[in-house]
Amino acid sequence: MENRKALPITLEDVEFIVKDQFEMIIDLAKYNSFCMGCMGKNEPEMLDLKVVLNEMDDLIFQGKCRYCNGKMKRYIELGESKEYHMRTQLIRESKQNKN
Ligand SMILES: [Zn+2]
Known about the structure:
By secondary structure, the chain is α+β, with helices and mostly antiparallel strands. It has one domain (7-79). Helices cover 35% and strands 24% of the residues. Strands 1-2-3-4 form a 4-stranded antiparallel beta sheet. A hairpin with a 5-residue loop joins strand 2 (46-53) and strand 3. Helix 1 (11-18) runs antiparallel to helix 3. The radius of gyration is 14 Å and the shape is elongated. The protein binds zinc ion (ZN). Zinc ion (ZN) binds at residues 35, 37-38, 65, 67-68, 70. Zinc ion (ZN) is lined by residues 35, 37-38, 65, 67-68, 70.
């Protein structure tokens, strides 16, 4: 049975899901996010990354800006890929079993 809701996951979980896309995705999240505080004054860099797997099986990275400590967020779509979906299900099941 599918139980899709937003679920906090770790960077290791992200790596498990996306395999060899991991570095590219982390790069995107870290360096291609926009900070409202800096408004493009600095090259973006997101620190303290936290990840949520949302109900669409997409990734939402949240962290803080290296320069102004402002909150940053980056949405990365994974939804379409069957392979990713299979592995996000495994993650969801493993997290449920822990509780
Ligand atoms: Zn900033």
